[in-house]
Amino acid sequence: MSVRTVAILVYDGVSLLDVAGPGEVFTEATRLGGRYDMKLVSPAGSDVTSNQGIRVAVDAAVSDVREPDIYLVPGADRYPSERVPAELADATRLPAARARRIVSICTGAFLLAAAGLLDGKRATTHWRVAGKLAAQYPTCRVEPDAIYVRDGRIYTSAGVTSGIDLALALLEEDHGVDLTREVARLLVVYMQRSGGQSQFSAPLQVPPPQSPALRTITDLVTDNPSGDHSLRALADHLHVSTRHLTRMFREELSTTPARYVEGIRFDLARALLDRGHTATQAATGAGFPSYESMRRVFAREMGLSPTAYRRRFSTAQRVSGQDHRS
């Protein structure tokens, strides 16, 4: 088995988490026989200081990088608000020309864009700065909600832990699902999420209600997703009309009671599938009235059936029993 070279660009102000997260994936893979050779490279080959003030020892200059299998560009806090210096853009561009795969983590997308590597490409970055990426580099087609995006040999990821998701996806490309699942288990993370998944889960996208009355209802749903949360039952709980409750949800949460309940159940179903439960068990445990109703939600939100999601992303041992529906 050949050794794959991973060259990671580091520079003053680089985010250590963007370096360490994906780096740990390749380190664990190597311990299990995956064989990756990681090198930290900087523009001039000198050591750098991270955004946490920690000194980072460097292996080589970018000019010394030959033909890396993966060229990984981490982000930094400063570059969404500051323009990437020309010398750093040049340092980003040089190894990229020779790399088989070019990868950015979080705001590392700004470095790729400054180097001209995202012109006409689809890309993502952290949701907080996706608008800035689109505004500063209008030829880049920014997908603000995606966890990671692949366009040809260029891969971009969203913030923080999505760098681990992308590294796991690259590992699966190289070595298949079995090694990837084992690395994910060692790192105590789920099998990598689909790149097309939203950066947000449904409840996180909805701010908490301000009124105590509506908070009572959302807490009721969150605490017991499988309960009777029909519109009539929720309205009766507050002693208001169904029309009034619907208006409360729309005014405060910009959604309907039914969609809020559905979002909570969807998140719980995903968690159950991630833990190895069958699709039928997840539907029952999450409170969906039937497997079919859960399947429709998964198809709409993820483009996958629950069973397909379980096959791709579960890392836990499966609960006894089989479910062959898709």
Automatic annotation (TrEMBL):
Output the Pfam families linked to this UniProt entry.
DJ-1_PfpI, HTH_18
Where in the sequence is the signal peptide annotated? none
- Tell me where in this chain the HTH araC/xylS-type domain is found: 215-312
Q: Which GO terms describe its molecular function?
A: DNA-binding transcription factor activity; sequence-specific DNA binding
Q: Which UniProt keywords apply?
A: Transcription, Transcription regulation
By its UniProt entry, which PANTHER family does this protein fall under? Answer: ARAC-FAMILY TRANSCRIPTIONAL REGULATOR, HTH-TYPE TRANSCRIPTIONAL REGULATOR RV1931C
The name this protein carries in UniProt is DJ-1/PfpI family protein
Lineage, opening ranks: Bacteria, Bacillati, Actinomycetota, Actinomycetes, Mycobacteriales
